[in-house]
Amino acid sequence: MAALAEARVQGKVTIVRRLSLIVTLLAIGLPLPLTVLARNIPVDRMRGLLSPPLIDNAEPPSRPALRLATWQRGEFQRGFEPWFASIVVPRGWSVRLTNQLYYSLFARSYMVGGTIIVGREHYLYQRDDLHAYCESARGDGTMVTPLVDEVRELRNLLARRGHPLLFVVSPSKAVTMREFLPADLCRWPVAPDRPRRLLVEKLREAGVPVIDGPDLVREMKARDPLPPFLRGSVHWSQVAGERVAGVLLEEVRVLTGTDLGELTLGSPRWTASPTGTDRDFAELLNLLRPPLDYPTGVAAPICRPTVSGHEARLVAVGDSFLITVLDPIGACGLFKEVDLYFYYTLAHMRWPGGREPVDRAKLRWRKTLDMAAVTVVEINEVAIDHDVPYLHQFLDDAIAALR
Fold it and tell me: Shortest CA distance to 327 belongs to which of 308, 356, 301?
């Protein structure tokens, strides 16, 4: 019997190896013959059938010149790969086919450096979120205290100048939707939300106003027909982000003593197809058939602007979760200007306006913060018990500017 069982296991291993070999050969071999055939098909038609459209209508890369000088400087090597990829017309199709096979057969993805993890019922997670979830029980809170000390100092410096600070904690999908985590991930920690609860408690003890995002989405999860984190997104849903935007505006009204506007939502419709950030990770899988067969909620925003709000400015520092909060506020036109320093120096996003690069050396935080009716600082739950360089850089620069 043991020999028979071992033979069955070996047979399954052989099948998996053969399937992997077929996938590899398809990925390597399909583009070349299909590229030759594509020469006889109009380019526009071929692009529509087999490859993704060019982003922002960008021109394809030109063929690099092969000369001794360009080879020695490495210019030819750097330019060859993008040029060759651009002339292999069906390459995008074969890549998506390979990805589809891995996803459908093995529930695996190698896109974005292998950072997309497929959980139960094909819920998608970010690898770093899962790592933080598994390590949450080992944290001793040593990273929380210095962060709270800096936030408290900035809050006090702003208060002396008559400006409030509001801290936002955004949630982790791994903690909020732990029932769909991969079965073999790790031994489930008893209290994965412990770092977040510790941070919120210490901030409130320090007199720093806090929006506890994980607490808000837990309430949404209990009452809504759909979860606050959708299957194919790594961010909280757009409805959740819009609700938090309304909470943020109410907190700002309390802190400033001024009505700067209001954002509420109509009754959500829970049968909409996912769009925007509600499908971000599903699209990053880069499949022939992205798994977009799940419903999401949409709700009509009800904007109430004020004269005071139209003269005010909101300044924020945080990550991508904050975009889903500020975007509906910007769309309502409630403030004269909303500025988000995305991961502090990765980009400066403006409503109204656009996106521009950030030169840390040229930032003038005394002037910027003096012009702001409120300053918002955000951190995600997964980063609480870890070093967060971008946030400490901002706090150091802002504190130095206001002392």
Answer: 301
